[in-house]
Amino acid sequence: MTITTESPMDLPCAPAAGIPGLIELQSVECPDTPAPNSVLGKVALILQAFSVDDDELTLSHLSRRTGVPKASVHRLAQELLELGFLERAGASYRLGMRLFEIGARVPRTRALRESLLPFMHALHSATRQTILLTVLQGAEIVFVERVNSYGQAPSLSKLGGHVPLHCSATGKVFMAFGPPELFETAVRGGLTRLTPNSAASPVRLRAQIDRVRADGHAVEYEEVMQGFSSIAVPLYESSGRLIAGLSVTGTLQRTDIPRFTRSLLMTKEMIESSRAIA
Asked: Which keywords, in A-to-Z order, does the entry hold (predicted)?
């Protein structure tokens, strides 16, 4: 690739499509800062423009979301097509299989997913709810594995999706049992509300974290998506380092908090006793 130094165009912002009941956080249509001048920086913006809910995007969408001029997006997209990082979908683009191949090799999550998936299936059989495995990424949690509940909306927490620490049950688990600075990091980032029930004040969030620390698990009601609740526990490596969060998520009508909490804690004990996480 040839490095260029083109200036980004000022383009109008377009509203991002969201999930009902959930504020769209996965993509930004109008960047706060100018697009980087390096080719690598622009390529990163193009690939990151796809949210977990985007099957495909047009050239215009990519340009608006990245702030990169259409001509530059088109040229870089052609190279990404040749490399297999993008694929054609009519007049639009979608992420290519080459990215999936590379992502599947990430050691941080590959071994974790392979080790814990049998336990997740067992927990799903016991609860019939969606089981989610998450890891920490900055001030957010990222969904790295899931076992779906029958009939539950698949858009609730797609693989690769992410939500702020302060809203989710697993995020609260990370703040309660992870590095102390996570709480301040979350607060400095702004306690954005995903629903009216989301914790929006440091005082309320601190009280929630103290409760999680005392109980050993976290429960959230409609803080990520209206009509849904989650229970989460921390998962540790044999060295004692917090490495992931495991949760049960379901609709309020189908969620039996006491029973699901018992099943989740039993699963945590089995994982720890089997030393599934080295």
From this structure: DNA-binding, Transcription, Transcription regulation
Euclidean distance between CA atoms 239 and 242, whole angstroms: 9
Q: What is the DSSP letter of 224?
A: S
Q: Compute the distance between CA of residue 196 and CA of residue 198 in angstroms, rounded to an integer.
A: 6
Return the closest-CA partner of residue 233 out of 257, 256, 254, 217. 217
Q: Which helix (H) or strand (E) holds 200?
A: none
Distance from C-alpha of 4 to C-alpha of 31, rounded to nearest angstrom: 20
Burial of 123 (0-12, 13-18, 19+ CB in 10 A): buried
Query: Comparing 17 with 197, which gets the higher pLDDT?
Result: 197
Same domain, 233 and 261: yes
Cα–Cα distance between 235 and 245 in angstroms, integer?
A: 6
Do 90 and 122 lie in a common domain? Answer: no
- The alpha carbons of the chain give a radius of gyration, in whole angstroms, of 20
Count of domains for the chain: 2
Answer whether 80's CB lies under 8 Å from 96's CB: yes
CA distance 143 to 163: 9
As given in the structure block, the two tokens for residue 117 are 């998936």
At position 268, the amino acid (one-letter code) is K
Looking at the fold, whether 144 and 34 belong to one and the same domain comes out as no
Q: Is beta strand 242-251 parallel, antiparallel or unpaired with respect to 218-221?
A: unpaired
The least confident of 34-43, 59-68, 169-178 is 34-43
Domain that holds residue 208: 106-274
